[in-house]
């Protein structure tokens, strides 16, 4: 057995640590937790959980310039419910509370009201009450960036008709205005921007409406883009449209809101992950995600 001689730290290092320790003592003197014989148990815990010994760094210390998909997002689920998922009250209060805690993803379930002339937020198929979508959006606008300037994503679970989708599109536009993030290329992003670039922005994520059809034929994504531009012009220049044209505009106007397309993969999930020319939000169970991550981790986070 060999004994290793423990080297003493240099005198300069000892002096630095001594001065640091003295500074801590002086800064906490007003708390009256230090006794002549050292710390008692309660005083130790008061120091351990004090402001000068916080467990989390309250300053941004990580690189925030990578694509948004490279980060974990603080996410809410049924963010509008005050209590349980079956019979509790729907309200804007839980949304405000979540945003003030730093939650960055707010989920809203959209349903027609009883007259089917407006949109409400509730947990469908349960006994939960409802709250107006407009009230929820106003609450998000007013509190989105109280805790952080990094982007807020609103996920819509959409159960509404094309006419109501059009109403939602106008509502979102009116309430968020310049806060709303719209990709410069209209139909779908190919790469997520970074959290740094998205500061102060609100993004909408939901499953896009079905691609419209012309004369019984499904049109391409490029044609969707062209129709969206045409739709913007027609809203200014044309007041009288046929019912078919109106339905088409309703679908395209709503689609144009969506910066993060959502989808639930059918069939081979790996096929979806191989489509590198577009980004989307996939709904996967934890078990499926864990299994796919073993072989497709770089395809999931890109």
UniProtKB/TrEMBL annotation:
Keywords: Hydrolase, Lipid degradation, Lipid metabolism. Its main location: membrane. GO terms for cellular component: plasma membrane. Residues 62-207 form the Phosphatidylinositol-specific phospholipase C X domain. GO terms for biological process: lipid catabolic process; phosphatidylinositol-mediated signaling; release of sequestered calcium ion into cytosol. It is a peripheral membrane protein. It holds the Pfam family PI-PLC-X. Residues 226-251 are annotated as: Disordered. One of its GO terms (molecular function) is phosphatidylinositol-4,5-bisphosphate phospholipase C activity. It catalyses: a 1,2-diacyl-sn-glycero-3-phospho-(1D-myo-inositol-4,5-bisphosphate) + H2O = 1D-myo-inositol 1,4,5-trisphosphate + a 1,2-diacyl-sn-glycerol + H(+). SMART domains: PLCXc. Residues 241-251 have a biased composition (Acidic residues). Its EC number is 3.1.4.11. It is found in: Cell membrane. PANTHER family: PHOSPHOINOSITIDE PHOSPHOLIPASE C 1, PHOSPHOINOSITIDE-SPECIFIC PHOSPHOLIPASE C FAMILY PROTEIN. This is Phosphoinositide phospholipase C. It comes from Trifolium subterraneum (Subterranean clover).
